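Renewal narrative, Specific Aim 1. Our central claim is that a sequence can be written position by position from structural information alone. The example that follows is taken directly from our test logs and has not been curated for this report. It begins with the structure tokens describing the chain, in the order in which they were read.
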């Protein structure tokens, strides 16, 4: 039986309380909400925090709402809440697409968007969706808050811009008209980590792609932001030739590793094909 190393446990009652605990306990403290990523790592002794700070009572971070021209998601919003949110599904269907292929009902009932993003797993679905949606992330500390672009949030595998005495508080998605989005994923079995996945958000104007975001999962050391694919799409009218060009750039700019899920060239092929499919669906939704 796998058992974690000994640790102390504290239950936070507010964001300020959680931040105070992190400040007092130091860098060996870790936050826990759903725990579906951290606890398995602790059981395998891949992570051995000396202190766990439980933030499940921080209901002030559990919301999905429109505010100041943005769709704002509290970091403690559960996967199930994202999947069931009519507002999120209408404004950013990419998140409903992604949530339908994340794990199983047990994980979706307990896991949170903040925990998923802060785990910074290269195969994690919501990171690619947030990259495509041009998300901004609000990080809070005792001295105030700062806002980080999604492209700057992940510093590498399992490493983020959140400091040891800080907490991810909110995800902000820009709201614009004539928007469409989609997420495509290939997995070995239902609920598994992706072999490869692609998320796309488009914003249309006068029949052309005014702005676009393309994010990939499972084909690099972190969620891949496809800047060159976005550049070739921006300002152009949708066409299969245009989608092919963007897909080729997305495939070229990712850096998959061979593993039990497949060889490098297979994953690179999937990155391009899934980008193409996501583009078709995102544009169709924007124009529909």
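The sequence written for that structure reads:
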């Amino acid at each position: 039986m796998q058992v974690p190393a000994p640790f102390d446990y504290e239950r936070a009652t507010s964001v300020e309380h959680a931040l105070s605990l992190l400040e007092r306990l130091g860098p060996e403290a870790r936050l826990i909400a759903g725990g579906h990523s951290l606890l398995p790592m602790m059981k395998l002794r891949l992570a051995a925090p000396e202190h766990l700070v439980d933030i499940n009572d921080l209901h002030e971070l559990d919301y999905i709402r429109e505010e100041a021209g943005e769709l704002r998601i509290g970091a403690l919003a559960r996967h199930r809440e994202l999947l069931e949110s009519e507002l999120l599904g209408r404004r950013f269907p990419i998140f409903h697409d992604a949530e339908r292929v994340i794990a199983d009902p047990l994980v979706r009932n307990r896991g949170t968007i903040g925990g998923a993003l802060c785990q910074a797993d290269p195969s994690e679905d919501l990171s690619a969706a947030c990259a495509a949606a041009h998300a901004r992330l609000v990080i809070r500390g005792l001295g105030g808050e700062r806002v980080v672009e999604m492209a700057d949030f992940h510093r590498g595998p399992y490493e983020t811009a959140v400091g040891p005495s800080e907490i991810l508080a909110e995800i902000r998605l820009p709201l614009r008209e004539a928007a469409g989005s989609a997420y495509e994923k290939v997995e070995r079995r239902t609920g598994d980590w992706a072999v490869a996945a692609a998320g796309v958000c488009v914003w249309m104007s006068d029949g052309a792609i005014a702005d676009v975001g393309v994010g990939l999962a499972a084909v690099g050391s972190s969620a891949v932001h496809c800047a060159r694919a976005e550049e070739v799409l921006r300002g152009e009218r949708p066409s299969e030739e245009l989608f092919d060009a963007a897909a080729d750039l997305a495939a070229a700019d990712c850096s998959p590793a061979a593993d039990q899920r497949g060889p490098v060239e297979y994953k690179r092929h999937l990155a391009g094909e899934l980008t193409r499919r996501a583009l078709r669906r995102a544009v169709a939704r924007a124009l529909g």
